[in-house]
Amino acid sequence: QAKEGGRGGYRFFSPEMNQKLRERRALEADLRVALAQGGFRLAYQPQVNLDTGAVIGAEALLRWERPGIGNMPPDRFISVAEETGLIGPIGTWALQEACREACTWPGQLTIAVNVSPVQFRQSGLYEAVVAALESSGLPPERLELEITEGVLLNDTEETLATLHRLRELGVKIAMDDFGTGYSSLGYLQKFPFDKVKIDRSFVRHLGGDRSAEAIVRAVVGMSHALGVHTIAEGVETLLQADMLRQKGCEEVQGFMFGKPMNASDFVALLGSEEVP
Ligand code: C2E
Ligand code: MG
Ligand code: MG
Ligand code: MG
Asked: What does the alpha-carbon distance between residue 15 and residue 7 come to, in Å, rounded to a whole number?
C-alpha cells in the first residue's frame, strides 16, 4: 500500500502505523503534563520476612491516573517514557517521593525503588540519589535500588563504577526479575548485589511444576553461596510461601501479604502489626 500516498508520492506508513504513532505522541504529551502537574503517585507493596512475618519494608510502584482514560499500569507507559527520555525526570521524582515517604516510617524499614536501564544510563542517576537522600534525610542504608539485568547489558565499566559508588554511599542494590534475562549467573558474579529478587514467573509455578522448584532451589543456593539473600516476588498462596521458606528464601512480596497500596494504608498496616 506504500504506493497509494497522496499526490503520487510514496507513503511510508500504513494507516495502522499512523494510528500507533498518534497514540504514542498523545501518550508522550500526557506523560509530560503528568510530570509537570504532579499526576504520578506511588503505591507501596509490603516486603515481609518469611520467618517472623514482620514487614521489613516496601517496594514503591509508579501509578498514573491518565486523564480521560483511567489507571495506566507502568508496563504500558514505561517503555514510551524510556524512548522519549522522560524516564529520567519521572525516575527522579519517584526517588524523591519514595525517600520522603519512607522517612516517616518507623525504625529500619527499607524502601525499594525501581531504576530503569535507560534511567541508569542517563547521566545524573548518582546525583539524583544523593539529592533524594539529602532532601529527605533518609539514611542511605534504608534505600534500595532495584535494577534489572538490562542495566548490566551495556557500558559495563561505567555502569559498574556507578553501582560501586552508590554502594559506597550505603545504598543497597537488588537484582530484580532474576532469571528472566540473559546469562543471569554471570551478572551475580560481576557485581556484589545485596539482594536477588526471584521473578514471579518461577514463583507462580511452585507447587505444580518441578522445574520451577529446581530453579528456585538453585537460585537460592547460588545466592547464598555468594553471600546474597533472596526475596521472592508475586507470592500469592500459602503453598508458594511454604515452599519458598523450605528452600531458604528469606523474604517475600506478593498479593498474599499485601497488594500495592497508598502510603497511608501502608502506615496503617504497620500500626496493626503485632509486636512480637
Ligand atoms: P516489578 O518491579 O517486577 O514489580 C512487581 C510487579 O508485580 C508490580 O506490578 C506488582 O504490582 C506486581 N505484583 C506484586 N505482587 C504480585 C502478585 O502476587 N501477583 C501478581 N500477579 N502481581 C504482583 P506493577 O506495579 O504493574 O509494575 C510493573 C513493572 O513496572 C515493575 O515490575 C517495574 O518493572 C515497572 N515499574 C513500576 N514502577 C516503576 C518505577 O517507579 N520506575 C521504573 N523504572 N519502573 C517501574
Ligand atoms: Mg521491582
Ligand atoms: Mg520484579
Ligand atoms: Mg517483575
From this structure: 17
Q: Which residue minimizes the CA distance to atom 15 of ligand 1?
A: 254
Residue 255 Cβ inside 6 Å of ligand 1? The answer reads yes
Q: Point out the least confidently predicted range of 92-106, 132-146, 183-197.
A: 183-197
- Any ligand 1 atom below 6 A from CB of 265: no
Pull the grid cell for residue 139.
539514611
Instruction: Decide the pairing of beta strands 195-198 and 229-233.
Output: parallel
**DSSP string for 45-84:** EEEEETTT--EEEEEEEEEEEETTTEEE-GGGTHHHHHHH
- pTM for the model stands at 0.93
Would you say 20 and 28 are in contact if contact means Cβ atoms under 8 Å apart? no
Question: Which residues have C-beta within 8 Å of that of residue 178, sequence separation ≥ 6?
Answer: 149, 184, 196, 197, 198, 199, 219
Q: What pLDDT shows up at residue 276? A: 42
**How many Å apart are CA 260 and CA 63, to the nearest integer?**
10
- Give the DSSP letter of residue 205: T
Alpha-carbon span 139 to 100, nearest angstrom: 11
Q: How far is the CA of 11 from the centre of ligand 4 (A)?
A: 39
Is residue 46 lining ligand 1, measured as CB closer than 6 Å?
A: no
- CA 200/CA 252 separation, integer angstroms: 11
